Amino acid sequence: AAVILAFAPVFLQQRTWCHAEVLLIGAILAPGRRTVTSILRITGLARERRFVNYHRVLNRAAWSGRAAARVLLGLLLGAFAPRGPVVLGLDDTIERRRGRRIGAKGIYRDPVRSSKGHFVKASGLRWLGLTLLVPIPWAGRVWALPFLTALAPSERYCRERGRRHKRLTDWARQLVLQARRWMPGRPLILVADSGFAALELLAALVRRGVTCVTRLRLDAALYAPAPPRRPGMVGRPRTKGARLPTLAAVLADGETPWRRVTVPGWYGEGDRVVEIHSGTATWRHAGMPVVPIRRVLLRDPSHRFDPQALLCTDAAQDPLQVVRWFVQRWQVEVTFREVRDHLGVETQRQWS
Fold first, then answer.
1. I need a surface site. Which of 41, 71, 271, 272 has the fewest CB within 10 A?
2. pTM of the predicted model as reported, rounded to 2 decimal places
3. Residue 57, Cβ neighbours under 10 Å: how many?
4. From CA 321, how far away is CA 26, in angstroms rounded?
């Protein structure tokens, strides 16, 4: 009861909160699809004459979803991560929707059904979710607990309404900086996939004290740090040093030293022995900000997965810790699947 009552200040009207409280409790108790009808049935309100008031909580009533996200984050931190660094997972997912009145939908690449050689398109809504990655003691593994989501409308939707289209990295910056304002005194680590390995996004988050861990392309342009400026030199200071070999060349070099480590919780398979090679570099592209990084190369001694590269915007971070943070990102995909299987996402009937 105390957890549920913590959300009462989010709703401006007492009557709206009374209806929302029934929806929240019913969503916990209802088996199968979490529709308003099944919620009313499980809470003993199947013969409620004014059932439309419960639908209006979701489509007409005035309340702040962002304020509810802040309350939810505070409850999650107090229960599972009261101290220490906070690890956040960021990823997007497609809610498959069709219909003329679902205006924000677009045509996107389906990441679940597509592969390197096979491209599958999907029509639906693109959602960006920010999750809290924490170990759950009684579950025995890390869970990705979503607390803040944002709808990223398609480019056609914005163009038809005369709005400026925001890229996925723009939405990501807004979500993470919102979480940064909610947790001003906590170390923050963001784990994301290669789609968010953008210099503008990384530089904006580093300025706010957020450590980012993402994938890195094997052909990325990496440079040595800029040499120190000599006395008497004129002109703009240098932002980079000599060009470093690409990670693909480092991977193919037979003299590259490798370190064998054990990574716990490797994509839900338990401990996995991998080989890593790490170093520091400066990632730079013409016209883009300069970001110092620690790059980590991974390869499997048994050749069960292709070599890959990671980056961390904290150049002083331990390479093994970087790998441990990144493998937790897989729990975000698990959460997306469980949301579809158990919470009824993509099965609810809606007009817009």
1. 271
2. 0.91
3. 21
4. 41
